[in-house]
Design a protein that fits this description.
Shape: globular
Strand order of the largest sheet: 8-9-7-6-13-14-16-15
Strand content: 15-25%
Order of helices and strands: EHHHEEEEEHEEEEEEHEHEHEHEH
Largest sheet: 8 strands, mixed
Number of helices: 9
Structural class: alpha/beta
Radius of gyration: 20 Å
Length: 310
């Protein structure tokens, strides 16, 4: 198991813009610069909560998915990850950013609870959180193993995460799918905590159905930090050509609005990484820009829970 070096991030000085000036300046700068220029998002701090996603072009949507408030968390550490090479591109895969700002954001060793959805037999993140001192509850319906304790502090459940409770997973009988609130109710007597210190989702596009349900159910109010591997559609843009799903900018705008709803609900995005093997590949690049990835690792902390502890 390898762990990335702690990255201390300096707080950027915020530029003072009015509520209406922020989106206006963003649109103005993009209007006068070439379409593939990302300079606008670098020179001003856009309040993405107020931006109308339906007005953004592909390059601006890529700016949004790539953006993070790097000064929101002063001490960020990547937990887990393994070095792999795909298509002759070596990089670390599977790492998750954790905010270690104390006293209100860092998980408390020997007391923290982690829910980890999507394992695929790669345990580096879960083992790193175990070594940190957390009780880890891991879930993956695709692994052909039964519920078991991998170690004293890592507990595995063959259970899918979904937007509703059903007794199947991807049409497969014998494997159940449950909402986060149902799983939390099931496990709360086991771990004893009402709060989830860290929630990891790597569930291969199912996040787009799960995230709205988490917000509407109120479960996000019980999550201190959230990490999602975001998977954007990368199918064929010409539905006449084959049977792949048809995607347009409107679909990417719809997905961007789902992430924006998290941020309007009090989540603060402190880290966003591009998946190196998804950059400039497939149909997403044609809609979002030649260097646009279709997968990201994005992490947030819950500002409402921090404020409640002050």
């Amino acid at each position: 198991m390898q762990m990335a070096i702690v990255r201390r991030k300096t707080i950027k000085t915020l530029m003072l813009w009015t509520i209406f000036g922020i989106p206006f300046a963003y649109v103005l700068i993009h209007a006068v610069l070439p379409a593939d220029n990302h300079f606008a998002s670098q020179v001003i701090n856009v309040d993405w909560r107020r931006v109308d996603m339906d007005t953004l072009n592909g390059h601006q949507l890529t700016d949004y998915f790539s953006w993070s408030d790097s000064g929101a968390c002063r001490l960020v550490q990547d937990f887990g990850g393994v070095m792999i090479s795909v298509d002759n591109i070596p990089a670390v895969d599977g790492q998750k950013a954790v905010c270690l700002d104390r006293p209100h954001l860092a998980p408390s060793p020997d007391k923290c609870i982690v829910y980890s959805f999507g394992i695929n037999n790669e345990w580096s993140f879960d083992e790193a959180m175990e070594h940190y001192g957390c009780n880890v509850f891991a879930f993956d319906p695709s692994m052909n193993v039964s519920d078991h304790d991998r170690s004293e502090w890592i507990h595995f459940y063959r259970l899918g995460l979904g937007s509703k409770d059903v007794d199947t997973w991807n049409g497969q009988s014998g494997v159940k799918t449950r909402t986060l609130d149902s799983i939390h109710q099931m496990l709360k007597p086991v771990h004893g905590s009402d709060m989830i210190d860290y929630l990891k989702l790597d569930i291969e596009t199912a996040e787009w159905a799960v995230l709205p349900q988490m917000v509407s159910s109120g479960m996000m109010d019980k999550v201190k930090q959230l990490s999602v591997e975001v998977h954007l559609p990368n199918g064929n843009t010409n539905k006449e050509q084959d049977n792949e799903p048809y995607f347009s900018l409107d679909e990417y705008r719809r997905l961007a609005k789902i992430l924006q709803s998290l941020e309007n609900d009090g989540l603060v995005r402190f880290d966003s990484k591009r998946n190196p093997w998804s950059v400039g590949v497939g149909k997403a690049a044609g809609l979002l820009g030649s260097d646009a990835p279709y997968a990201y690792e994005i992490a947030w902390f819950n500002k409402k829970l921090v404020q409640s502890q002050l």
